[in-house]
Amino acid sequence: MLILGIESSCDETSIAIVEDGKNVLSNVIATQIEIHKKYGGVVPEIASRHHIEDISYVLQEALEKANKKITDIDYIAVTNKPGLIGSLLVGIMFAKGLSFRYNIPLIPVNHLEGHIYSTFLHQDVKMPATVVVASGGHTSIYNMSENHELNLLGETQDDAIGEAYDKVARMVGLSYPGGPSIEKNSVGGENTLNIPIPNVSGYDLSFSGIKTFVTNYINKCNMKNEEYRINDICKSFEIAAVENLKRKIVKACLDTNSKTLAIAGGVSANKHLRNELYTSLELKDVEIKFPIKMEYCTDNGAMIAAAAYYNLEYKSDIEKTFDATSTKEF
Ligand code: KG4
Ligand code: ZN
């Protein structure tokens, strides 16, 4: 089965062709990072305009790379929520147009589910699994059962982990997106701030305290006219943010007897996070799966196609007609 996956919820226009939910035949991503960098974050109106400019070229390239014609496609999958409404609408209307013109059925995909299924591309995930989305908009921990039912165990009560990375980067003058900038600048830094790990009950998380600790530290240095080392701030922040997430992930895996830990979203590209989970003794009996390629960590069409494939297999109530304001939850 060939599924064309369309993703345009934020600042990446991406279209992929995926066979049987696993084999990525093409995954074309037109990123707008350089455009939004100068504003320090994504400007929604500008993002929508660039999606409109790019999307038909992205489709053409995705078909060419996969050596397929649009008429070879069995289903079109498109992110319908959550995301920037103007950006989502570009992908949705484009998908609807294709679906209408070529009579190909359409499947709406929740962006978070897309991230979760990015860990299923080119690899097997054994159930039950603890699945984690760690991105710029979300930090959520789920349990996935044998029949792919998702049960939310906990989520951030304030900032998402990627959002905290982005905000701290901006504070110290590093470029957007903050995750890769902080990762790079933590090299050679020391954990001099020793930021306390928030104490939140259950599987819920909080990142705003870690971020505020950094703000207060910088303000204190400025008041005292003392210089601070950006590398130390990056290192200290990264250690605290990752440890915070790791503790909840470990608890979820052990409490639910998970066979697999699957972790996705932009922050899953982070080397320190990967290393901490791979070397955790508490997780020694749990198979750890990250997206197999870095390009599947951040927003991409392949994950949307994969999610649609598994939704077709496991969900009985797939919507065939919908719009960006659909209230259907997964
Ligand atoms: O999944 P994604 O592309 O978009 C959302 O759905 O939010 O995630 C983007 C987020 C940004 O906050 C970015 O700073 C973060 O992922 N990110 C990283 C890394 N690469 C991207 N955070 C930490 N380390 C990285 N290497
Ligand atoms: Zn995303």
TrEMBL record:
Q: What does the entry's cofactor note say about binding and number?
A: Binds 1 Fe(2+) ion per subunit.
Specify whether DNA repair is a keyword of the entry. Answer: no
Which residues participate in Fe cation binding? H111, H115, D299
Q: Which cofactor(s) does the record list? A: Fe(2+)
Q: Which GO terms describe its molecular function?
A: DNA binding; endonuclease activity; iron ion binding; tRNA N(6)-L-threonylcarbamoyladenine synthase activity
> Which reaction equations make up its catalytic activity?
L-threonylcarbamoyladenylate + adenosine(37) in tRNA = N(6)-L-threonylcarbamoyladenosine(37) in tRNA + AMP + H(+)
Q: Does the keyword RNA-binding apply?
A: no
Q: Where are the transmembrane segments?
A: none
Which family is annotated?
Belongs to the KAE1 / TsaD family.
Q: Which HAMAP family match?
A: TsaD (MF_01445)
The protein in question is named tRNA N6-adenosine threonylcarbamoyltransferase
Biological source species? Oceanivirga miroungae
